Amino acid sequence: MKHIASITTLTLVAASAFADAAPAAAPASAWSQSANIALTSNYVWRGVSQNNNSIAVQGGFDVAHSSGLSAGVWASSLSSGTEVDLYANYGFKVGSVDLSVGYIAYTYQSDVSSTFSEVNVAASYAGLTAKVSKEVANSVSGSGYTDHGYYYELGYVYSIPAIKGLDLSLHYGWKDSSGSNSTVDDYSVGLSYPVAGLVASLVYSNGDSTIDGLTAFTLKKTF
Considering only CA atoms, which of 74, 136, 85 is closest in space to residue 108? Predict the structure, then answer.
């Protein structure tokens, strides 16, 4: 019995040694990242075509931390040059409401003087998002974007039950120029649907800055 007990003890010790030697599972990273690339028939931003109603290639890269911090870069070809946006956000929840505060810089490689930036706050609940952006630096010349005004927007995304993956998106925004009684309004209606690993979307936009409505068809891939 003593011999058997000794063998048993040695076996347990050996098993313990091997268990100690086995690599521990790596803890889940607090960081995550994603990238995206898109091809669009018209780059429309706040009701205005940014590339003279022509095709644009776009792409971005984002990193996020489990604390709610995130940052990224996004770029788009223009009719002349390239736009590169740099942004950072902090998101958190209060009950069922998602809140965020952020900063974004819009830079134009062919016209540095057009670079401007905004700070923003947003709240989202059940597909509905309200957001306010405030210009903090602005050298843009053009109707409605000549001073440190506010841009208000409401958005709603509805997943259509009858067709899995089909989403309807609605947007309304208005620019309130600082020191002026004038506003610049825009709205859009869009549909998006996943196709072969891509997301296809069709969006119609219109507003005060657009004589005729603008339509954009986009294919986007996220990695």
Answer: 85
